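4.2 Preliminary Data

To establish feasibility before requesting continued support, the project team ran the inverse folding procedure on a target of 72 residues. The structure was first converted into the token representation described in Section 3, and no sequence information of any kind was made available to the design step. The complete token record follows.
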């Protein structure tokens, strides 16, 4: 699947309040689903690493970088 399409689908599912970004609460669900137990322990670290503009939410571009780096 093309990566932009995959990121769009992740947003469709996990951007629950539809504000166009993944907040920390939504991110926990996403990581829980994608990485299971391993991800939950690393969730805070992963969030901080990929929230590159430090606005406390994960944008589509930031999620795309994460998907590429973690090969999700
Ligand atoms: Ca959201
Ligand atoms: Ca951000």
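Position-by-position output of the design step:
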């Amino acid at each position: 699947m093309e990566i932009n399409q995959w990121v769009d689908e992740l947003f469709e599912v996990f951007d629950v309040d539809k504000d166009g970004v993944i907040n920390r609460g939504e991110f926990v669900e996403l990581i829980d689903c994608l990485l299971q137990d391993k991800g939950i322990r690393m969730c805070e670290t992963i969030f901080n690493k990929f929230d590159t503009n430090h606005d406390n939410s994960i944008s589509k571009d930031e999620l795309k970088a994460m998907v590429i780096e973690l090969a999700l």
